[in-house]
Amino acid sequence: xxxxxxxxxxxxxxxxxxxxxxxxxxxxxxxxxxxxxxxxxxxxxxxxxxxxxxxxxxxxxxxxxxxxxxxxxxxxxxxxxxxxxxxxxxxxxxxxxxxxxxxxxxxxxxxxxxxxxxxxxxxxxxxxxxxxxxxxxxxxxxxxxxxxxxxxxxxxxxxxxxxxxxxxxxxxxxxxxxxxxxxxxxxxxxxxxxxxxxxxxxxxxxxxxxxxxxxxxxxxxxxxxxxxxxxxxxxxxxxxxxxxxxxxxxxxxxxxxxxxxxxxxxxxxxxxxxxxxxxxxxxxxxxxxxxxxxxxxxxxxxxxxxxxxxxxxxxxxxxxxxxxxxxxxxxxxxxxxxxxxxxxxxxxxxxxxxxxxxxxxxxxxxxxxxxxxxxxxxxxxxxxxxxxxxxxxxxxxxxxxxxxxxxxxxxxxxxxxxxxxxxxxxxxxxxxxxxxxxxxxxxxxxxxxxxxxxx
Amino acid sequence: xxxxxxxxxxxxxxxxxxxxxxxxxxxxxxxxxxxxxxxxxxxxxxxxxxxxxxxxxxxxxxxxxxxxxxxxxxxxxxxxxxxxxxxxxxxxxxxxxxxxxxxxxxxxxxxxxxxxxxxxxxxxxxxxxxxxxxxxxxxxxxxxxxxxxxxxxxxxxxxxxxxxxxxxxxxxxxxxxxxxxxxxxxxxxxxxxxxxxxxxxxxxxxxxxxxxxxxxxxxxxxxxxxxxxxxxxxxxxxxxxx
Lengths: 455, 242
What we know:
The complex is a heterodimer of chains A (455) and B (242). With 455 residues, chain A is α+β, with helices and mostly antiparallel strands.
């Protein structure tokens, strides 16, 4: 007997008792529905969770210059002056695993607005890419500075929420001017609040500005010089805006053009304090580190056996949290799904057993007119599978509808997953076969004489 | 032509440690076209013999030749195929599938047959069979919408759908009143005379046995008498359904 005929017979048989068939499939409907809904809601939750953890910087990498040393005295991490903005561009160009990168210079200075002042945790000079790297693109107010601002060294800045509170007392700061080291900056935006990071560092107590502005107008130093002495302050660029001369006088007289020409010194490139990068995703962090190291070693002409003059750090703790959470979510969902399917399957087995008992005479009759054991086995198995698949189809609709409803009413993130649907179909057929087999096997082993005599 | 030949068939059931002999050496020949009644009191072994003849069971010892084929040692699957092709069954309690149309009931054995008929061919053949038993206008009726006699006629149509040479009827009129019994028996006679189908019916009703042209009486596992019904002694007075 062909499978098609068997399936049709099964359908016909099930139609003979539609109420019971419905109730039987209910187990599978709910099971599969639960699986689909859980998978979709769970996938959405998982994605949201991943995004949240990623926004804490799980995919972020930091490149800092290595240590400089002089006569056996090491100056600590970040003291060599070999890291340049061009390195940052090269990394972005040549490392496929890096999504975005931004150079950074840091400063610490007093900020003044009107009669109030404040020293923020950090003043970061960077590029607009920083907001993308830190997943901070959505501003509370205003708009971010542009690459053009970076190129021109424009005096614009973004304020963190804490600064707004300290300096502006709830007033909108956008469009106002603040002074950093007596240099006026126009506030063009306010960062969305981030709170403290895991180390307790208030991430909202920060000013972002173009790195060129910070480097050439505010500090004129790098970390290297800052750590050794504050003697070298090359703030020649900002003389026009520097109303009150506060910078110290240079120890050595400036070299004239003639001196420069006679005795050329190696061109001093602009060094930066660190590069912040974002990997495409957490899985690509390791390859990204490798690619970055390759690019930087080449650009810095480091010989094969020499140590790096830079460090690449990842947020290992966050990454680990991320992968643990994701795994936990997946397993949790799987467990729930399995339990509901097993419950549904037991329901199917129960009804199939009842059905076999109830239809003993029918089985006897079918055997008497020439059905072999395997025909009976197939018939009952196909019936169970048809039940399960029908239930599975209804469950998919129900589950999908349910998750849509959840999305609509609770505004939860939901991700439709074709994989879950395919799995549900396969699993419900599997449940039908596994839990339908025993009753079907029992039916096929009936003795036709006994079965015909069964009351 | 000899259709069925039994040679010293024995059947012993094992009840725990005790062996219970039910058939104690039955030898019997049934030729094609006979209408045989198998009678005997309950416990005489007629049902067991019927099961063996119907290839539902195999004998403990002895030979069973059906259309020149020794079938007593066939496997369960081979016997199923044999039943499908060569034997038809009619039961006392009709055994129709509930909530299934007469047509589908009749077509059901075709799905287990070796010849794979298309759905349409199967339905056509079933419809033809039903009109032969006089139910051509009841194709889509469910068993619950049919009278007892009609149900039994559906069962007969089902038994004949594979055009078997032999039809077994186990108390075919046991659940019917005397009038419909008569109809069913007349149908058997017609099948017997017109289509030359060999019919073997088990009955303990002498009136039913009276329609046969040969009555085999069983008693305690052996054949006690084998004669035309005219020679059957003491036809019970009173008649009617027992």
